[in-house]
Specification:
222 residues; alpha+beta; Cytidine Deaminase, domain 2; 2 domains; two-stranded antiparallel sheet; 6 helices; 10 strands; globular; disordered N terminus
């Protein structure tokens, strides 16, 4: 739809977009979503309908851009929250190459199987990050057979290690994290800071709101 003319027949939806009255009774698209406006619809119906479609996630539910960190936290299943805590503890613990712990990332993802049950798939530990390098994780499943049960992946989580006074690590999402989230636009992406004990939500564009405390994240829906 082109830019509507500036005339008194135009109506504004709740997002501030203008839609020309002669389009009433026609169909169109917003993103990947098609809509049909009934010819008898008035300004309020037009406004509410287009606002709904404009905020809808094509995969179902509200788009992440309209949600808060706490509302996203409420959607993370308890099984996944427990696995995230396990990943945090594992990041602080020694591995074969991270001899003291605190210098490697851990990651885990969760989703549903074909029956709609929650499946949690932890990853193998990320490699030790030598001085001058950044830690990373590739979400390589520790149990490929369990990972294969995932029909959907709804949450991706990883841990930014705590490091130490000589080698601190950023706790917030990196540019690579944000760029990587573009590959999973319908999933919840989060990173936990092992040092500051905060949970950061992000999408393929930016961080979503302010981080929340880990203890608040671990609570039930609020």
């Amino acid at each position: 739809m082109g830019q509507p003319p500036d005339d008194p027949e135009s109506f504004a939806d709740l997002n501030g977009h203008m839609f020309w009255a002669p389009f009433l009774g026609s169909s169109g698209e917003i993103g990947n979503i098609s809509f049909l406006i009934a010819s008898g619809a008035g300004p309020s119906e037009l406004s509410a309908g287009l606002n709904y479609f404009g905020n809808a996630d094509p995969q179902g539910g509200q788009a992440q851009s309209t949600q808060t960190p706490q509302s996203l936290a409420n959607q993370v299943p308890p099984e996944m929250k427990a696995a995230i805590m396990d990943a945090l503890n594992a990041s602080n613990a020694p591995t074969d190459d991270d001899k003291k712990g605190g210098f490697h990332e851990e990651s885990v993802k969760s989703g549903k199987d074909a029956s709609g049950n929650v499946v949690v798939s932890p990853s193998v530990p990320g490699p030790y990050a030598p001085p001058g390098t950044d830690p990373h994780t590739g979400f390589k499943p520790a149990d490929p057979k369990k990972d294969e049960k995932l029909v959907t992946v709804d949450v991706f989580a990883h841990i930014h290690p705590k490091g130490n006074a000589d080698r601190p690590f950023n706790q917030f999402p990196s540019k690579k994290d944000i760029a990587g989230a573009k590959d999973s636009p319908s999933a919840i992406n989060l990173v936990v800071g092992a040092k500051d004990k905060k949970v950061y939500f992000f999408n393929g564009s930016d961080q979503i709101g302010n981080p929340i405390k880990l203890k608040d994240f671990m609570r039930g829906p609020q």
